[in-house]
């Protein structure tokens, strides 16, 4: 073998060694498609305090709202459609509380009565890495999968925040925007603030309560 041939073989072996090192090294990395996540990092997003705007589809009903979570409770406040604006589900240690424009109502009498509980169960599962598996979508995006009593779910992850939560058996999708994890346990936005809330009584409060009660009655009739 000539000296030139030996050099060519040496160079080829070196290139193969570099390529093999890159492949093996890539197997140990946590990157999956777009974004870079470990199972624990993704679960930590939902284990602590957070708030997020949410575009929600449940069957044929499309809604928007704000989803907030703390270790004590999970709350979903609806903003649209107009006839559901002010409807709030809060799930905590004492069960599910439903309010409409600040007034306590029976969940069963409302449209989408199980939405709050379903969302809270998903958030609880997403915050527990033991209940989750890490994978990727068909398009290569990182994703978490798991199951609640309503069936299997998949959470698609972006670069640094969750993107889309899907639970096919419930025909439920939640698209997250402006996902914010609270720093240092700072307070999350209150789901009952604003007009129609249950704050201190003042001028015009009786009229507001009366108006809210009429809205509750109308909403209950519409949900039957």
Average predicted confidence as pLDDT: 76
Order of helices and strands: HHEEEEEEHEEEEEH
Question: Based on DSSP secondary structure assignment, what is the total number of beta strands?
Answer: 11
Share in helix: 25-40%
CA radius of gyration is: 25 Å
**Low-confidence parts, pLDDT < 50 over ≥5 residues?**
6-34, 184-206, 218-224
Shape call: globular
Name the structural class: alpha+beta
> How many helices?
4
In spatial order, strands of the major sheet run: 6-5-4-3-2-1-11-10-9-8-7
Structural write-up:
With 224 residues, the protein is an alpha+beta fold. Helix content is 29%, strand content 33%. An 11-stranded antiparallel beta sheet has the order 6-5-4-3-2-1-11-10-9-8-7.
Question: Concise description?
Answer:
This protein is of the alpha+beta class. It has 4 helices and 11 strands; from the N terminus they run ααββββββαβββββα.
Write the layout of secondary structure elements.
Elements (H helix, E strand, L loop, with lengths): L2 H25 L11 H9 L2 E9 L2 E9 L3 E8 L6 E6 L2 E6 L2 E3 L9 H12 L6 E4 L5 E7 L2 E7 L4 E6 L4 E10 L23 H19 L1
List keywords for this structure.
single chain; 224 residues; alpha+beta; 4 helices; 11 strands; globular; disordered C terminus
